[in-house]
Amino acid sequence: MQETIRFELNGKKIETLLDPTLTLLWVLRNKFGLTGTKYGCGMGFCGACTVLLEQEAVRSCMLPVGDADIKKLSPSKDWHVMVICILFKKLL
Known about the structure:
5-stranded mixed beta sheet
């Protein structure tokens, strides 16, 4: 079942018809072509799918797009690189 979903994406107001159970990751990649947001583990552990939602880092592979309704979203292309660097530093 599709619903009208409204949110702000990189400063642009978006209103689109989507299945609210789709994950935000696949909507960003497939619907909006924002491929900087990556699929990693699919369970929210690795951080490759991290985006900013209302200035809070969230794992988009675990978040249904319906939960992003009427919020400000900023995909972060370099977030996964930052997470890898932090993990690498912890290993040293």
